[in-house]
Request: fold
Amino acid sequence: SAVISQKPSRDICQRGTSLTIQCQVDSQVTMMFWYRQQPGQSLTLIATANQGSEATYESGFVIDKFPISRPNLTFSTLTVSNMSPEDSSIYLCSVGRNTEAFFGQGTRLTVV
Amino acid sequence: AQSVAQPEDQVKVAEGNPLTVKCTYSVSGNPYLFWYVQYPNRGLQFLLKYITGDNLVKGSYGFEAEFNKSQTSFHLKKPSALVSDSALYFCAVRDQEKGSYIPTFGRGTSLIVHP
Reply:
């Protein structure tokens, strides 16, 4: 299994500001994933964070809005930039191991 | 492409009764299938998975799921529901041949177990 610590667990932010979410894994992993879960909806993959290279973004997500860092094999950050109320969601960090996906507890973001 | 359908937004059962949460999938190759549970204000927790072998898979908290290749289904079941089982349940699929860790999730089914 994998133990993933994600913080903050929740935040309320003013529109126009940015929030950086941190994800720490208990062991080294090649790829880390960032998901968004909008209210009442399923998980949508934002990007794959690779160590030593640029993140790979899914359709509809761009680096300027969701910059990602991956400084080493156990840590990644996702920044939600220039926030608007539409960014209010749960953001989840995930890693894959032995065919399974493991998730952090999520960051519940509310933009006011 | 891979996809998952959870046809029910919500399932309600009485405590002690059996429960079923439905899931059907579509992949071009052979599937890896998963069930996750999300409790309020929590991340996703892994319940069980089907990789190969026995079609009946047993997982955490007394849950099980049956892989049915002909019906492309992977319904989640529990013989006797508990109020504490009330949560959001997600089915997910991954194509075995793709070699990627990225599953596709269904939209989720809210399970409500009432006393």
Q: What stands out?
A: The interface with chain A takes residues 32, 34, 36, 41-46, 49, 51, 90, 92, 94, 101-103, 105-108 of chain B (CB under 8 Å).
